[in-house]
Amino acid sequence: MDLAGQVALVTGGASGLGLASTAALINRGATVFVADLPTAGRGAITDLGAHFLAANVLDEEQLAAALDAAGEAGPLRGVVHTAGRGGDRLRILDRERNPAPLDAFADMVRTNLFGTYNVLRLCAARMAGNDELPEGSRGAFVLTASVAAFDGQVGQTSYTASKAAVHGITLVAARDLASWGIRVNTIAPGLFDTPMLARLRDDIREGLAQSVPYPRRLGSPAEYGRLAVELLENDYLNGETIRLDGSIRMAPR
User: Fold this and answer.
1) What tens digit of pLDDT does each residue of 201-236 get?
2) For burial by CB atoms within 10 Å, which of 49, 141, 163, 241 has the most?
3) pTM of the prediction?
């Protein structure tokens, strides 16, 4: 799919992986709409030339309104879904043998998995009405999992469950939407230099960087953005989860 002149949506695009994906899409000539929480900063989005739409990916009405606004610019062809939340590091049992709160687990799964499914279903409904492009495509998705889907660490039960589920639905979604000419792929990023890691002490960040086999550094959000664009553009990539992680395999702790 040639992205030049096409309309694309990036969820969680106000910072980190989403902002880098927005920049990469604009560099390809796409018209980009960013759906993020109303409290998200908009300056960087505006500077790039993208359009901000306030929407929580778990809110059907807000997301539908955002899609209506984006649809005024043309048919939606590409979606990069990066909205989600990080782990809370809750052990199944604490030191006093108390079980972790069920609400904490449910909230994580709801945000990362239900949010992904809500974006997938509502955006796919719009794409299915598109005219076919010359190659037969109506649209494509890039979802976001994590290496925790495969190498979850101690305290990551809920986060791993949510991201493993995103990986798990990727092939099924690709098969499900194949008859509509819609592709679905997922990126499973490793340790990336995002605002989430920026909150850590410098020595901890350096230790994480040194744990990556090669290249021995944190990933750049721009590297995620480049892969996201490739997954949208390459019409024979479908149903895949691609690890973007410098070959790291996370230790138990």
Assistant:
1) 888 888 889 999 999 999 999 999 999 999 999 999
2) 163
3) 0.96
55 Cβ contact partners less than 8 Å away, ≥ 6 residues apart: 35, 36, 37, 62, 63, 65, 66
| Structural tokens at position 192 | 């990336």
What the block records as the tokens of 97 is: 């043998």
Rounded-to-integer distance, Cα 156 and Cα 173, Å = 25
Return the active site residues.
159
Let me know: does 90 contact 157? Beta carbons within 8 Å.
Answer: yes
What digits encode the pLDDT tens for the residues 128-155?
A: 999 999 999 999 999 999 999 999 999 9
For the chain, how big is the Rg over CA atoms in Å?
18
Residue 211: both structure tokens together: 């744990």
CB distance 184 to 141 below 8 Å: yes
CA distance 175 to 211: 36
CA distance 172 to 49: 34
Torsion 213-245-52-27 (CA) sign: positive
Distance between CA atoms of residues 136 and 73, nearest Å: 21
**Structural contact between residues 118 and 46, judged by C-beta atoms closer than 8 angstroms:** no
Burial 137-148 (b: 16+ CB within 10 A, else e): bbbbbbbbbbbb
- pLDDT, one tens digit per residue, over 160-191 is 999 999 999 999 999 999 999 999 999 999 99
Q: How far apart are CA 141 and CA 185, in angstroms?
A: 6
Cα gap 68→71, rounded to integer Å: 5
Record the tokens describing residue 2, joined without a space: 């040639």
pLDDT (tens digit per residue) in 232-253: 999 999 999 999 999 999 888 8
